[in-house]
Structures are given as C-alpha cells and as structure tokens.
Protein 1
Amino acid sequence: MNLLNTLADRDAYDRAVEHFGRRRIALPTFAELAEPARIGPAARSALAAADPDAAAPANLFRVHWYNDAARSGVAALPAHVVLTEALTGVAAPIVVVLGDRFPMIQAHKVLPAYACLVSRLVTGRFDPSRQRALWPSTGNYCRGGVAISRAVGCRGVAILPAGMSDERFAWLERWVVDPADIVRTPGTESNVREIYDACAELERDPANVVLNQFSEFANYLAHFSVTGRAFEHVFESLRAQRPSLRLAAFVAASGSAGTLGAGDWLKARQGARIVAVEALECPTMLYNGYGEHNIQGIGDKHIPYIHNVVNGDVAVAVSDRATDQLFVLFNDPAGHALLRAQGVGDDAIAALPHFGLSSICNIVAAIKTAKTLGLGADDALLTVATDGAAMYRSEFAKALDRHFGGAFDEGAARRTQNTHLAQAGTEHVLVLGEVERRRIFNLGYYTWVEQRGVALADFEARRDPAFWQGLHALLPQWDAMIGEFNRASGAA
Ligand SMILES: Cc1ncc(COP(=O)(O)O)c(C=O)c1O
C-alpha cells in the first residue's frame, strides 16, 4: 500500500522546492493547523495583509477551524453553536462547529485539499511546475483544490457532476485559470463512479495527477488530527462550564468519509460514538441502496477507501425532503418568526445562515441519534456545518417551488418544524454490531478491488484497527518533511 512516507522522485521534489522557493511560499504543518497558536510570527504577519477570499499563499495558514468572525484573525475557539431542546426537541445538546470560516471557499474542504497536496509535494509525488492537480469531487473539495492550486501557483482541474448547484459552478468559473479546467461528469450528487471514470481517463496523461479525496489517507489524517483536536477543544470548553457533560457522539455525513476521521480522534480521547450519515434516497450503508438525492456534498453508492468502517457505531439516513424543507424554514422570515416564538435563542437563529444542506442533514441525524440512544441533557453530540447557506441560494427558490408551491407562511413553517424536527424519529437508524460493520466494509470491495484494481491484501488490511492506528504515525513524519521542505525552499 502506498502510504506516501518515502521520497518517490527526487527531481520532482527538487523542482517543487524550487517552485516554492521562487514564490517564497511556506507550507504549514498539520500541527500548526491543528493548533494555530503554534504558527510562527513570520506567517502570522504575512496574514495581516491577506484577503481571506483571495488566492493568496498566506491563506494556507488559515486552513484551520480557528478563524475569527472576520475570517482574518485567530479566535480562541472554533466557531460553534449549541442547539438546545427549543430547536431540536431533544434534551441532549447538539453542538455544531461552523465550517464557513475557512478561507477562499467558505467550507472546510480546503483542509483535505491542502492535506492531499502537501503530502505529495513533500514526498516528490507532485511537480507543481509541470503537472496539473486533478480534484475529483461533488463540489466543495474541487473548489478547495482549485483554491489551493491557485494559492501555490500550480494548475488545478475540478471534476464534478454537471448537476451540482449553480453557486459551485459560478465560483469555479471565477477561480479556474482556464475554463477547460472544469470537467463536468454525468449526473448529480451520487454519481461518484462517473467522476472516477473521468479521472482514470485523464490520468493516462502523466501531466495529470489525481488527488482522490475518497482514497488518499491524507484526507482522513487531516480530519483526524486537525478537526479532531479542534472539535475536542470545543467540547472541553463546554465541559468546563458543565462538568457533568459527556461526549456521547460525533455525527457526520459521509461524502469522502474524511470528516469522519475526526470521529476516530474523538472516540479514542472522549469515548464518543461515531455516527455516519447518508441520504435516505441513496442509502448505501443502511440498505445497499442507490438513487438520486439533493444533499449536496454527500455523494454515495460506494464506501470510500478512507472510511474506517470498523470503528463506526451508528449509521443514519436522512431524507433530502427534510433538508430541502428545513433549508427553507431556516432561511425564511416566517421560519425565523416561528422558531423565535417557540423559544429558540438569538444565537441559534443567527447561526442558521451558516447551515448548508449537509449541515441540516447532520443536525437531523443528531436528533435521530439522540432519540435512538436515549440521550439526555448531559450527553452532548458534536457535529459539523461543512458549508453555509450561501452556497445554495438557488436551491432555496427550487425548494420553495417544489415543496411549498412558491410561498412559505406560518402554517408551512409549523408543519415543517413539526415533521422534520419535533417528530424526527428513530426510523432509518442502524446501531452497528459486528455483522453490520462487516457488511458495510465488504461493500467497499466492489468499488476498490473489482472496479479500481486495488490489491485485495491492501483492501483487507483496513479491516484491522491497528492499520488505522499505524496511519497516525504518518502525521509527525509529514510534519518533519514539511519543515525540511520549507528549509530547503528558503521560505521557512
Ligand atoms: C457540503 C458538504 N457536506 C459534507 C461533505 C462530506 O464531507 P467528507 O467528504 O469529509 O465526508 C462534503 C464533502 O465534500 C461537502 O461538500
């Protein structure tokens, strides 16, 4: 198995060092991104002048959870909101950490994009002066990849289904160097196989390097170390105010399953259960199902290679009817008025624009989990808002038409709140035992061994918890290599 911990090509490495040296671009370590207080004074002062939404190299040092509300400075804690019973209908607090403070794309997917690129750069597996970085995705990862590519001065190509939101394409059109760097594949959210096929075709050209978020362990490791640590910090800050609080569960919808990597950190340190979420209209984990859905970012019909299935505890499916309708409730004045009247606090109302479709999916899944496990007021659930509502403005109008005949009023708000929050039930929730874990793990065989040619022994190795623990040793190795790379380029 290729774990990217040895130097693959000295010439590519030397050219990469030269590329970064000429541009005076320093690379942050994983430890710095996990705890930005570690970032040195030089990188910090370069940040002061950098616009968080520009393709500036300094923004690499903002690829972390601690950006402040202006997205330019460093906050003491990651931005988060605690959703209480008035909104969720369950006593267990649901803590949502906000991803839209990340630089350039306003979603945390720049973190895995950076991780996948840097692990290749420092091991001589990507030559930014000659090669193009290909970013396969259902939307945000390819935006993250294009942003990181622009920031470091290399060519980045986005590969995504043609049916994704207008906002994603509008953003990409502004950011790519050449319109040909947007490759549209057939279908929508759950058509991941078509993305793989396009990559396989493009990869025949050695100038193209595919940075496959679904199979690069850098994605898993970035979330394990950077997201895991940041989220634990949020939980610890809440426990400092309420010492009886336990971390009952970490809930995250799976696209590439990268974010679920934070669950491995939180389970090892806090005993949190790991809850993997998917769309009911494409219930791969629950029912080996298939289908189209609109929870953009959580493409499915396969089990990602970097999903540590054996460490999972619960699988939950959420309908895109719930996410579409709640998206309207959360972004319409009639919805806000109803929630306020029901006692939902100003901080929660103010957080609603920070919830994209998959964020709402995570919140509903957390409610369903709390009900299934019988969680109480001392059992916190941690989850994530990967991106905010800004990425889905066009989806608001579509959902309004599709579900509410073009108009949303108090009655519609009440019905939506009642159906999808108050009455969110325990159906389509599977508490995983040995049999279920094995079944979900085995499903990955068809994608990775049969279709993509992964060696059976490599596929099977991932069944053993020791494999994932062994992976964690890569993080200090990569950090040492990043330090060495920065020294060699002179940008340290
Ligand atoms: C909006 C959104 N939500 C959720 C996810 C899933 O995150 P992950 O790929 O880490 O599983 C993605 C992934 O691209 C996303 O863009």
Protein 2
Amino acid sequence: MEEKALKFAAVFLPVLSLFVCLFLPFFPKIHTWAEEAREARLAEAEFAASQQEMEDLEIKEEPDTGIGPKGQLNLRLPDGVDGSKVHISNDYVTQTIRIEIPGTDLAYFDSYPISGSSSHIDTMSYTKEGDEGVIEIVMDRVYELDMDYDSDYYYFNFLKPHDVYDKVVVIDAGHGGRAAGATKQGVREKEINLAIVLQLREIFAQGDDKIGVYFTRTDDGNPTFDQRVQLANKSDADLFVSVHNNSLGNGRMSRTNGTQVMYNETSEESRVFRSEERRVGKECRL
Ligand SMILES: [Zn+2]
C-alpha cells in the first residue's frame, strides 16, 4: 500500500509541477478573466433587477403614403392631454425610448394603437406607473429623436447618429456600481474613471457640435460589457474610448507607471489612433 502511494506521488508530483510551470505565465490572466467574469455577473444581475414586468404593445403598421400622421411612429394623444404633458427620454445604452403619457391604460392602445412602421423596433411594451402610462420602445440601434406634436398626435422620427453628427464617439468609464475595479488605499478605480469621463463630457459640451458623444455611464451605474460594446456598435461609433486606471497586484509602489493604451492590433484604424494618442501625450508632457 505504501509502495503504491509512493509510486502515485512519484508520478503525480512531477505532473503537478509541470502543470504549474506551464500555466504560471497565465496566472495573472486567469485572475483577470475571473475578475472580468465576476464583474460581468454583477452587471447582469444589476440590469436584471432594474427590469420590470410590462405588457406587449402592437404597432398598427402604416406604410408612409404621405397622407395621415407624419411620423415614423404616431402616438394619438388622449382627449384633454396636451403634448407638453408627455415626457420622453432616450437611453442610448439600452436603445430604449421611454414615453410617459397621462390619461392612458392598456385598453386605450387597443382603441388607438400606435401607428407607423415597426421596422426599427425590437419590442414595444406598456406599464402603468401611478397616474402615468409608460411606453418603452426598444430600438434596433441607437437613434436620435426628432419629435413634434399637434393637438391630436405626437410624432416620432428616428435619426441615425451619423445623420446628425460628422463623427461619433463613445466614452466608457470602466467598472461602476458594485464593481469597483482596482482598489488601492481606499481609492476605487470606478470613481477615478467616472471623474475623468465627467470632465471629458464638459470639454465635449463646449466643443464641436458636429461630434456626437455617447457615454456608457455618467453615474455610478454598471452597464454590462455587452451594453458597453453595443452602444459603440449600434451608434456606428468612429471611436470607442474606455477609461481605466490600473494598479499592480502587490501593495508596494512600483516603478511601473504611466499611461497604458490598449488597442485592437488587427485594426489599422486603432493602431493609428494609438500612435496619435502617444504623440499628444508627449506634447502634453513638454
Ligand atoms: Zn479597470
């Protein structure tokens, strides 16, 4: 019995050490993968918790004949409800348009369905929140809204970002919510990332209005990785910048410092921007 155990140890231990040697270089990566998986789970759980039950709404398909209501989507206003009482928000990160309209219930939309074309719409649903009816429309991509109303209808037209802007930029503050990112001496990466991004927002607000800028988050939210990526894909972004502030695993100060630029090696455009960023970085130091 002892001999068997010795034989087993004689084979097992070298195999184990070989395994450790082979995978040692990947250990920091394995840690990163585990951390990313944990953050993805946190973000998805936060998003799921924010979702509520809603009833599906049908669209009355109406080809644009130039006659009748003039929007891509037309919402009939209930009697006595002025268009100024309707509140609309457009969440670019989830491509969800939210319309709060008083004086409606589900039966109202059976009598007066929203009409127009559903070709850009993934889902449309309705729920009641207090006195307000809330319609949520999930679009197939990011749109800017062009809206108007008269005494009978609210009109919605959807414009692609590049129809409005020459260049489209998506800026992502890394981490957020329960995912703090790198943490050192009580300083949390997610807060530094957000502070940088909020400053960028101010700079862009004073700049060229031909550049459209979308943010994955401007508060302590934590969009999922997929939502961050889809904001860029679904807005046809020319540039996606994700702001992170990393730290090394050990607790000591390190000689490793400075700016790190990660880019897609297979993309020539990414490569150009990376070298451009380095050049600007040098100029800043002069
Ligand atoms: Zn980070």
